Amino acid sequence: MNTPVEPTSQEPKPPLGKSGKTVLAAVLAAGLIAGGVFTGLALADPTTSDEYATAVSHAQVAGADRDKYRGALEELTTKHDTLVSEIEDRESALAERESAVGEKETEVAEADAAIETREKAVGTAEAEAAANTISDGTWTVGEDIKPGTYRAKEAVGSRCYWGVYRSGTNGSDIIDNDIPGGGKPTVKLAKGQDFKSSNCGSWQKK
């Protein structure tokens, strides 16, 4: 017994017109062309092309140049740091030398000042000693020589003579005199007296 077939609810599609067939053909053609291009691209290996080899070569050269310049930069940086360190060391040494020179200059200035002070002191002492020293001759105490006690600087000989006279008497009023004959005689002189020394050398005020 045959089962009856129920009719479907879909309505039959109308046949394509001329324009529809043209669009469908264009779509199919475009799909075929795209598929061919994609297949060609998928099959081609870009690393085998001349352009790829050129790019790789340029990249290698650029990398080598980069490494060379980087090495040169590091070398220059090291030299720069070394020079800066040397300059700092030299500046430090120069500062130390300048400080030492300054100290020496100060020492020299102090020594010069000390020498000048000593020279002044010596000059004063010499001047004072000269003022307090009597040589052979006749002197008026209080005018030519200072009053005080005088002693012969060196041992006298047998020809030494000294005399003390009252001033203004031309040696006629003898207060004291002596021919010591040796040793270092001492004489005390006062204002208003004349003192005569003959062959006795120098006398130093005590």
Structural class determined from secondary elements: alpha+beta
Which sequence of SSEs, written as H and E, runs from N to C?
HHEEEEEEEE
Strand arrangement in the largest pleated sheet: 1-8-3-6
Number of strand elements? 8
Descriptors for this entry?
2 domains; rod-shaped; 8 strands; 4-stranded antiparallel beta sheet
How would you describe what is shown here?
The chain is α+β, with helices and mostly antiparallel strands. The protein has two domains: about 50-130; about 135-205, no CATH class. It has helices spanning about 20-45, 50-130; strands spanning about 135, 135-140, 150, 160-165, 175-180, 185-190, 195-200, 205. The strands form two sheets. A four-stranded antiparallel β-sheet has the order 1-8-3-6. Strands 2-7-4-5 form a four-stranded antiparallel β-sheet, with no helix packed on it. It is rod-shaped. The mean pLDDT is about 85.
Quick recap:
52% of the residues lie in helices and 17% in strands. The chain has 206 residues and is of the alpha+beta class. The strands form two sheets. It has a four-stranded antiparallel sheet with strand order 1-8-3-6. Strands 2-7-4-5 form a four-stranded antiparallel sheet, with no helix packed on it.
